What does this fold into?
Amino acid sequence: MPPILCAATSNPGKLRDFSVAADQDGIRIHPLPGLREIPAPDENQSTFEGNARLKAEYYSRFTPDMVLADDSGLEVDALGGAPGVRSARFADDAGYQGRGTTADLRPLTTDERNNLCLLERMSGIEQRAARYRCVLALARAGKVLLTAEGVVEGEIIRAPQGSGGFGYDPLFWLPRLHRTMAEISLEEKHTLSHRGRALRALLPDLRTLLPESPLK
It folds into this structure.
């Protein structure tokens, strides 16, 4: 049976990214059972690694299996590294007061609000270098066993492009591919995304924890 890791997330985009990356190496990643009923911890750390470790330690107390937790986000050089660990809450933190509906009067999603807030903050800025960063932590029984990091460099464009992905993907331009992260396939995303890179960085040490695994 392929080794199974429990992911401490219900975000379908993250689960999809992890699953595509893990499938290449014979690992199955499932959502942590009962995750929605478990009170979420306060992600109060100032770094991606701090939050990833916090979540992995916390959620691994609810299952005998190993738990994989991540903290990831966007760092924009011109904004001093923001939104950083607050990427998912960027618009709310900034008190964004822009339009609240789409052209068809549908309320904006959190991702759409965050993207509009970022574009507003980047207005008039020419230097648009940015990166996605992901830190993974693997824990069991409240103890962190492994951590790993993945980074992908890019730029922030001036209007969204593409309908795939999630988060800031429609604004995250990949110069080498001349497309945004929202315009590439899941297979391409596996080869270069911050989550795929972090998971691949974790695999060599994960093999040592799974001596009977087909990863050997």
